[in-house]
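Sequence in, structure out.
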Amino acid sequence: YFRDLPPAPFRALLERQRLQRVDRANAMLEALKKVGISITWEELKAAGASDASVGRPHVARVLVSRGYVPTFNDAFRRFLGPGLPGYVPQQVPAPAEAVALVKAAGGVAGIAHPSHLKDPDATLGAALDAGLKALEVYHPDHKPAQIAAYESLAREKGLIPLGGSDFHGAGGSRAAKLGDHPTPAGSLVRIEAAWG
């Protein structure tokens, strides 16, 4: 979370990440060709992708529209999940590096939807050691027991509890709507105070 536009080094990181997403999408399309599924960039753009933002959800929408799978979630279960024919891993900074970059840029570092982490203990541990300040506690995929555990972790570690709907547009498969699972008002005050 930034008060102002992030400084140039952080914007450069975001640009590298954007370009890696484009490379990843191209690699997914090549991988799917090997199993007889040919998807074009025009189809991805019709599914909502752009050169600024492209990812697995766009590929999933095309797989549904072309009839390869009946539902969005089936696209991930049959083609786009880890170990499946169209899966290409993301290249992201290590947790400690990401937190350090955010801090150096004057931002407040937080982790989104920790229930999705591949190795939550190691990721959270490394991020905490690097100066993590916030944790998404309230999220549509978090079960009540997870919310309670994340609330407890946030209190114990002095983290700012965050919320988010993870809204990906009206055509997404998520039941949560924009504005669901909000960040508590007190957390917004704490984020502003963390900016110093």
